[in-house]
Input
Amino acid sequence: MSFEGTLITAIILTTLLFELILNITAEYLNIAKITPNLPDEFNDYYDQERYEKSQEYLRVCTKFGFITTMTDLLFFLCFWFLKGFDVVDTVVRNLGQGPVVTGLAYIGTLLILKGIISLPFSIYSTFVIEERFGFNKTTPLLFIKDLVKSIVISAILGSIIIGAILAFLESAGEWAWIICWGVSTIFILAVQYIVPTWIMPLFNKFTPLEEGELKHAILNYADNVGFPVSNIFVMDGSKRSTKANAFFTGFGKNRRIALFDTLIENYSTEELLAIIAHEIGHYKKKHIQKRMITGILQMGVIFFLISVFISYQGLFDAFFMTETSIYAGLIFFSMLFSPIDMIISVIMQFLSRKDEYEADRFAVKTTGLGTPMKSALKKLSVQNLSNLNPHPFYVFLNYSHPPIMNRLKAISESV
Output
């Protein structure tokens, strides 16, 4: 192996080891912070038995996550150092197709192999862990249908965008990264319309919210804050899980608010309105647009770096490749980029938590429903067996939302 290949191997291995140590430390601290004392704010929401159940759920999920991570890492290292990347490359090259088709076959094969390894863990998580704690409503048939649909949709959309990127990187010369950036941006914007209209209904049934107090309250509120919306849907989330949620998706005419049916069953009109106001707050405060713009700019930087490193011989030496290629370069660059990606992820998590606080303040200010807002968040925490007292370091690395106790305190201060 060349010096450059050895250096890149060292960088990637060091990053993997550093991430592993970082995550294990965070998980250990998170588990160690578990306390049998129920916070006073939850005395009317949690009984001691269910509170202990939430802590056991955290322990089980943490242990399972560790096993999953270690297994993935072991398989990856074995595949890498047994020259699996080169073996797959030799197989797809023997198909005798052009660089784009060969590249799609190469990337697709690697994704299939990764999917095969992760499938048993997904099955165990759904039908053992989630079942044990009373969440799972997914039947084996529904699980298989979801899996097939996901594979087909990913194959179609992935082939379109990855095929286009490979084609431009192969033929567009020094301006290829700009063209790829532009094409990917268009694709991302298009997906914002495609997903809520065509893809999400393939997995869940979206029923217009029936006329009544709740719909009237939501429409009145949306009109008062200048958020015209005609699409309010109830999603049949209960066919997969007892967990509850609500979300806002899409733009323009495709904009829609969706409430899980599990949410509507257990929450008052005021609590639901506070939750909706929080989701609208993300839109009114332009959080969604900011995240999208940030993501697009980040993507531009990544494509530029790809144009610099994609043909770097050291990358291919590090992964024992006999021949160089654009498609393999994409895969290897993503691994080399992982240290920067980890830093970006932590920053984005921090900004996301900041946005959640801002959306909470918006909801409380525009509805005056501070108490129902807190009540709804408490109920969600209990229903989903959320960790009430996560360690700050674990939050720093993994949380896109602030811990529940922090949110309740911030809401009280903003009332």
